[in-house]
Protein 1
Amino acid sequence: MLVLMSQGDTSESQLDHDADHLPEGDERYLLRNKRQIRGLLRQLRDQRAVVTMHVAGRDMAVPTAVLDVDEDDDCLILDGSHNETSNRAIEDAKYLLCYAQLERVNVRFRLEKAVRIERDVHVAFHADLPEAMYHMQRRESYRLETPITDSPVCTIRQDEAQGGNLNLQLRVIDISSGGLAVSLTAGMPLLEPQRTYRDCTLQLPDAAPIALPLTVCSQHKQTLPNGSEGFRVGMQFSDLPRGADESIQRYIFRVDRQRNARKSGVF
């Protein structure tokens, strides 16, 4: 039986927005296959992961755990709280927003209704399987800050027919399997949010250039090390060509390995 978690200042409406309206590109991590959903829930059960339930309409967070996953009835059993007020709030809620981690990878899902039951003389809750689960894979979520002396270079081009001449050669400041970020300095033209720039090239050190489309996902003002202002632009890989993912992973692994070796004094 789990204890009540301290209530935070996160509003229910914001939590609802986070769960139901994922950021641009996050559809890649939304699982709808029931077999995969059952598998993730079983992992939460087997690892005894703490699942934080946010009660709809209440500024209340209650820790729970997955006790069982019933494949025949497509349902799961969640632990109740020793606090009766929390149990009543869960029972009365129209829906519950659930957050957990599996090996430091975020998992979240929504339960439409939880029915109070008794299990081994303790309060528990029965709920239908979620229709979908958000699960960001570890390799996608790991983002490498690139070294200044060994950085990839991203070239973004656009001609008049595509909306105006553009030919930017930018240092990649961080990179993952899912995308990259570049830095725009003062005087450079800003990129259009949510636009896909189709004529781009990613040049990794010691590798062949990769031609690919890039979609602008975010653009934030930042202060550069020299004190001037610029913009950090996050871009998503829209359609990587064959072999590109492996090349990016090799670069990330090599830089990471070299950094770890320096920290351990190997060189």
Protein 2
Amino acid sequence: MEPVKDLNIHNDIRVKELLKQFKNIGGFQAQELYRAYEILEEMFNDKEIIRVLSFPADIVATGTRGILRDLVKNKMFDLIITTCGTLDHDLARLERSYHLGYFEADDIYLKNEGVMRLGNVFIPEDNYGPAIENVLQPILKDIYTKLKEKSYYYIICPVCGEKIFDREKEGLIVKLENHLKTHSKDLSELNFKIDEENKKIIGTYELIWEIGRRLESHPKKEESIIYWSYKNKIPMIVPGITDGAVGTQILMFKTEHPDFEVSVWSDELFLSKLFFGERRIGSLMLGGGISKHHVIWWAQFSGGLEYAVYITSAVELDGSLSGAKTREAISWGKIKKEAKHVTVWGDITIILPILIAPFL
């Protein structure tokens, strides 16, 4: 057994040095935090691993967004899985400010003042929904227009089997009539079916890239997680895309353009190609919920994660996915038996800066 050692800190100590001292101090979660650092260091140095980052939206409403942005900007992960609120807060904060608040605020008073509270962050109502709508609706319209240009209707000629196509149904019928004349046939003599090659279906990661592309001229683009996902072509999957302001904006747009579709199945097909087979996967999972579970769910199809770091403030006593420790995932085959893994309990806004600083 190794002895417990006292911390030896000074006013210019480097974060990496502090983390290494955590290895031997006991200190309950300090030792687990060192273990997380050790696992991430090995994972980042493993050039054959597919690195996955997952996180919930609430931390994007805080200054922790800057760390998440830098992880994407510096290409430290190959795939991101998150929630709709991440898109909400990322876009809203490009347009307006969130404000420092406090947990003990009078929420009835805040409601009367038009201020929403997320923990100790105050968000004026106009800085959220309306701000997101103002930036997103023109972007959705532009995306739809570009996708529509790639869509077309087509008919397989019932006489010769040739594919005849046009962007409009009326134009397609005219083309078919002219084509049938070469076979000495009349349109009324034949049965035919009009099909559509619909390019107006897009996955969430493709939608996010298209939004990011249209932020290129935004003065604050480099603050955006969405922008760097697009810029570095790092897929950002949002399996719960309907559960937030961006999802509602998509629904509003779809009521006017019913053939526009954001398909989670496109995402799932993408993930199936990434995870199925003998793939080596490692992940840093912040918080819990759908983003955490989506990582470990897909990981089982590649034999389980080889590296896994959980950071959570949830507890396992209620059987929740958010509070479940890494060892529980081993029983499901979502983390390999021989994997390097750790669960760190604590506040992500405190733990993540310390954990990630040595790698940036």
